[in-house]
Structure of Phenylalanine--tRNA ligase beta subunit:
Amino acid sequence: MPIITLPYDDLEKLTGTDKDTIIKRVPMIGADIERIEDDSIDIEFFPDRPDLYSVEGVARALRGFLDIDPGFREYEVKPYTVEITKDENIDSVRPVFGCAIVRGVKFTSSAIKTLMDLQESLHWGLGRDRKKVSIGVHDLSKVQPPFRYIAADPDYSFVPLDFTEPMTMREILEKHPKGTRFAHILDGFDMYPLILDANNNVLSFPPIINGTLTMVTEDTTDLLVDVTGLSNEVYTALNIVTTALAERGGEIEYVKVVNADGTESIPLDLSPRLKVLEREEIDGLIGMELPADEIINQLGRMGFGAKELADGRIEVQIPRYRADILDNSDIIEDIAVGYGFDKIPAVFPMNATVGKSHMLSDISSDMREIMTGLGYLQVMPFTLTSDRVHFDWMCREKTDDVTYVMHPISEDQTMVRTTILPNLIEILSMNQHRELPQRIFEAGDVVIDGKNGLHLAAVSISPQANFTEVRELVDALMRERLVEYEVVESEDPAFMEGRRADILVNGKKIGVMGELFPQVIVNFGLGQPVVGFEIDLLD
């Protein structure tokens, strides 16, 4: 889940209350305090609330929750004075486009950082690493409208952000850090997206990099926000960014988009979505009956507008920046959050049941007992990881049996692990300040070809670590399991040739063991020999 750093001075100013109250109450809106610093607080929010990925969004939510400014937040949007034309060829490259202007924003260095952090968090939370959504924010005073959104030749050149010399778009994808990182998004295209002003100055090369000309500084007051992508999440991101800037005193202004066929559109829509709640579904989900005025009050605390209809139903106004509201149950959950889960009476289930441990739990428990008896410490790393750690750092080829996260919130958590060893080596790399030897293990879940599995892995690091150590460990483990096994030479590139072996039971490979290949050790930043093994406990 995303961790957002919130400076106290910003948070107190935008919220209208003191930091002690904020620290005490912010967990009640669905957040965990990660750490409290002298000048800021780090808070972890659920990934379904991208509107809380900034200090402005958190302040808005807290003002309602603390009854400082409850209810539906209306934003005045001024008529357009600027238009942007879409080229007919862009629809085959990156078709969905949204934009707006926010004027009169007062920036500080921390406010700029917050804006940049919000962009990057949305790129992950909504944009699937910029593929579905990418956001650009530009100093409007540096460019001249009207603007054009076109599909351009890859040899078109401009000065990208963080550089001082012009580069072609093709060169940016090959040499610029952002270009090399996101070049795969434009694979297979002969033309690239580009946003230009009336003088052919480049604002943005989405989804890769902005031009350096429109970089936002503390002197910036008027901003053009552009959002491009492949889905309607583009408009959600536009709503979140523009309303966050409006919380800093900015005035939002429409931008007219002229399509290639001559039709016109206004992509920004901040009007509320309407849903109607039945009293029965509210009472049934919460588990208690609440008066209508109490329901309306709690909806107001959570940032909704609400009123009771003549037939007793509740009509709810949903802000456009609330991407998490998919159906009525999401709204009812917010009623319960506003009311307080601690106030909802606990009720025993109607049916009594007798539980027993699952077979997989029994296997894991047995493995924990054996491994701790052999002198190893249990660890519990995340099951989410990344291609970089799982394959590149392990010197292994990528496989087709990986399950990827549809909407990753971090570049470090893009896939579900298929093996445990990389996670254990990562833990060793984070504990180099501890004395050696270090011996750790995990019996945990993996997902291969979309199916859950159970693996056991262990690693040992010390100057004396060698193949004999890990072979003796596997011998002891298999003896305790009453399982006969044999070994054959392995070809796993994560281990050293001649010091690696596949583990076979009844002629079937169930695992591997050996001394880690030196490049693997270097990739994880370690400086001592490492040995390890991993076996499938269900084979």
